[in-house]
Structure formats: C-alpha cells, structure tokens
Amino acid sequence: MKRPLYLCHLVTSSVRAISATKVIVSAITLPLLLASSLHAQSDKPEETPTTEQKTAPLSPLVEKTSADTYQIGLISLNKKTREIRLPAVTHITDSSSIVEYLLTRNNGEKIHETLLTTAASPLNINIALKLLSYPQSQSLFEEDTHPDEAAKIDIQVSHEGKVTPITNWLQHRDTSKPMPHTPWLYNGSVMRNQQFMAELNGNILSIILEPSSLANYAGEDRHESNLWLPATRTPKAGTPVTVILKPWQ
Questions:
Q1: How far apart are CA 144 and CA 150, in angstroms?
Q2: Does pTM surpass 0.85?
Q3: Dihedral sign (CA 201, 101, 143, 173)
C-alpha cells in the first residue's frame, strides 16, 4: 500500500519544531492527524473491513500507558529514558550461517538473512524514533565521512530477564570473536515512489550497508559483507526476546 509522501514530512517537521517532551505530550493529538493515512498500517495482517469496522471510530495511533510511557502498536517508548522496546524472535541461529541483517519484519524480503524477526511495523518504529527526537543521518552512505555522532544508537536485547548488547549475539566468521560493542547509526530509511522503503521491504536493522533500513551497523568493517555469524550463545530459533533501542553513551 502506498504511503503519502506528506506523511513523513509532517512527522519530521513536527519533531524538528518542538522538543522531545512536547512531542510526546502532543502524541495524543498526533494520531488524529495521522490516523486517516496510518490506520490501515497496523502490526496485524490486513483484513477486509466489515460494515461495522468501516463506520467505527479510528483508534489512536499513539496511546499513553503511564506518565512517561507510550504505545504504538507493538512498540513501547519511554520519553524519560528515550528507550524503545519491541518484541522479536530469534530466527537464524546456526553459527555457520552468515547473517547480513540484525532485525527484519517477519514477512520481510530479507528474512532468510536475519538474526531476529519482529511483527512490529517499521513505520511505527520510525515514528517512535521521531517522537523521541533521535536525529537521523546519511553519513554512512557518503564517501570519506565518519559516522555522525548525534545519530548513533545502542541496540540491546533482553532475554529471560538479562539485558545484553546485541553485538554479543554475533561472532566474526574468521576469529569467532564477538562483534565489538559498537554503535548503530539511525539513517531513517528512504522514500521511493512515495513509499517508505523500510515498511515496503521489512528492513529494520542492517549489518551490511543498506539505505532502506532504519539503522545500520557503524563498525569500521561495515563495508565488508559475509563477516558475521550468529554466536553460539544465541538462543535457539523461535525464542521470544525484546529488542531495545536507546541513546548511545
């Protein structure tokens, strides 16, 4: 389904105009502006609406769940800590298999190359990042530039009550050493033919350089592919986990 180009302009300009706190406070009114375009985009498969559904009022896109927390579909965000949490499951965990993506949607184009999958909408994840005022940068895709410090994010994973950097679940093909605890760069995907590409192809977090993903690995070896394997410590395929996006420190 095509997403109107003005939608992304609306979200981006709103976030740039006001502070993160005010953006979150306005999250109750933001859904009213976006609902007509985004109501069809949920974390559930699309269904043909019944007569009752067609006439029923639209639910808010962003729901307040406590003084500091909000919910967008399957995604929770905290305006105080600026953490974003979303459910995922381990997917490719064979330590002899190359993975080129850290996280994709569970019906995405690159599901055969990803460590984790999620049912959460990439568009909703991007809106959460915008609402929490994470700056985005295309510096990884520019020649002779260093990753933009302001756009760096930390990615962690929670499993059975233990939180660890997601890099601990990846190991080098040649040395079997874990990936260094490295920042990821939020680049915000791209628009093509008035479609938000992360939503279209399901790419969310990429190990190889991929402009259509929401964020990319920013390590020094980011230009090399086929380097990373699931670590032997990674839980078996199909294990529920929680992915956490937070400011890089």
A1: 18
A2: no
A3: negative
